[in-house]
Amino acid sequence: MKKNCSRKSARGGRALLTGLMRCGRCGRMMRVFYGQAKGNAHRYQCRGDDAHVGAGLCIGIGGVRVDRAVALQILEAVSDRAVEAAILASDQVERSRKDIMAAVERELEVAGYEASLAARRYELVDPAKRHVARELEARWNGALERVAELEGRITELRAASAESPKIDRALLLLLAHDLPRVWNAPSTDTRTKQRLVHIVVREIVCDLDKNTNEAVLLIHWTGGRHTEVRVARVKTGRYPGDMAPTAVDALRKLAGRWPDRELAVSLNRMRCKTGDGETWTTVRVREMRERLGLPDYDPASSDDQMISLAKAADHFGICVGSAKSLVLKGILPATQAIKGSQWLVPVEALSSETVRIAVQRVIERRPKNYIDYQYDRMIRLPGI
Q1: Residue 208 in contact with residue 192, Cβ under 8 Å?
Q2: What is the pLDDT of residues 298-325, one digit of tens each?
Q3: Residue pair 343/327 in contact by the 8 Å Cβ criterion
Q4: What do you get for the CA distance between the two ends of the chain, in Å?
Q5: Whole-model pTM?
Q6: Residue 155's closest CA among 210, 86, 101?
Q7: Contact present, 323 and 313 (Cβ < 8 Å)
């Protein structure tokens, strides 16, 4: 628990707010989950106490919109003082360089005095006292080595100062007025952006507002101020709110064509809910169908010229997902009574040459050990 309560350092990756997002409900730090390798999407997710007691995930939000909103807030907050910050940065670099040089020169002056003092002491010692002379000689040599070391360091500092490019104040002022262009430049990598964000932002508390379907971000700045930002969440579901069919309308169109179990699957796929807000089951569909007076499914009266997509997939020897991809590509003709319901495939399309070639290509893409892998019922233990 303690390791999830403190923010983490910037670790690279596509997520801009890595180690800064905190869950507003349980107080844990939110983790970053990345999508497929071909995409750029990532997600901030709080796992809650799921790992210990299986309580389920807490809250989560897509990271692309959140990163964009926080980046705009950072650029807006920094832009007001960007000119002053650029001038102070230029002066601070030059001042620190001079301070280091002055400190080394003072050390060289002290080392030179100690070397001359050691030389005078060595000259005044009685040669007959060899042990004393040997000790003073060692101190003198040490002081001379210290002088040589500091002189070499001063030479290196002067060479580095001469080789380092001069800070162009006019260019800094120009960049300060155009921070978005600098932020979005291809040469500015994500790790650099993460470090900049960690400098100005202490942490971000995230919560979800279900009434407005927004993510509420409370940005805690390093200086102690706070800013609330609301980010619109992506609307889930297969239908827009004004086009989603009701369960009654869907049952009136689909009843009699499919068994109650298939109707329940279609209603759940269309995000239709019961009056109590529950998902549909076979029993609930049958009760609703009987209440509406809709006919039951009769296999004898079904159209023999149409078959389901699952039966078509069994006929071809491929999975339902591959068959659906052929439908979406327009290769295998199929129809739906309403969007989200079961697909119906004409029987005559099963013997089409175009469909046969497409199915053969799907089968050829399978790995060589596909059959053995699918029907291998042996339990393989680790290390064997």
Answers
A1: no
A2: 777 666 788 888 888 888 888 888 888 8
A3: yes
A4: 36
A5: 0.46
A6: 101
A7: yes
